[in-house]
Structure formats: structure tokens, C-alpha cells
Amino acid sequence: MLRSKGGSASFRIKNLETGKTEYVKLDDYLTTKQKRNLLKPDGIYQFTQRLKKEYAEKNTPIEIYARIKVSLNGRAPELFIDPQLDLTTIEWNYFNHNDWILPQPESISWSR
């Protein structure tokens, strides 16, 4: 194994008509394997699109926010995306860097 990745993800939806916020029960939408994909940018984007479509079918205007922390190779978990970012506004660039992904600190020291 070349790397070890872990983390946690939670999503909340703000109803723009009522102002109420609800947390998404990931188990209602995703399998265990699919939940692991929420630690990757494409998984975050795809799940956001699924939620947007579901609420659009109900004619409910929403904003989606997520708190996602990722740990790589045993390091402490760090925020992966800005928890104040409305994910309904993001775009996905498969081959380029996505500006909505936070830069990770250079916390690895490479000594010889």
C-alpha cells in the first residue's frame, strides 16, 4: 500500500425558503464504499449534484455545506474544503485543480 487515507464527512442543507438547516443522513443515500468516496473531490461533487437534483425536483431552493476532514498517511485530519462554501455553486474540473479544495499544509519533513 502506498498511502493510507481516512476522514469524515457531514453535509448540511439550508432551505432558502424557510431558513431551516438539516443534516443529511448519509446512510439514507450511500453505501459504506460510496461514503469513502466523499473524501475525494469527484465524490463530493457527485453527491452534491445528487442532492441538488433531489431538491430541485421538489422546487425547494437550497444551499449545501459540508465539513470534510481528511487524514493522509497517519497525519492529523485537516479540512479538505471550506465549510462555509455553498457547494451548489462549485464546478468540477476533472483535469485541473479545483479552487474549492483547500491547500494542504506542507507538514511532511523530508530529511535524509
Automatic annotation (TrEMBL):
<feature type="domain" description="Vitamin K-dependent gamma-carboxylase lumenal">
    <location>
        <begin position="1"/>
        <end position="105"/>
    </location>
</feature>
<protein>
    <recommendedName>
        <fullName>Vitamin K-dependent gamma-carboxylase lumenal domain-containing protein</fullName>
    </recommendedName>
</protein>
<dbReference type="Pfam" id="PF22777">
    <property type="entry name" value="VKGC_lumenal_dom"/>
</dbReference>
<dbReference type="InterPro" id="IPR007782">
    <property type="entry name" value="VKG_COase"/>
</dbReference>
<dbReference type="InterPro" id="IPR053935">
    <property type="entry name" value="VKGC_lumenal_dom"/>
</dbReference>
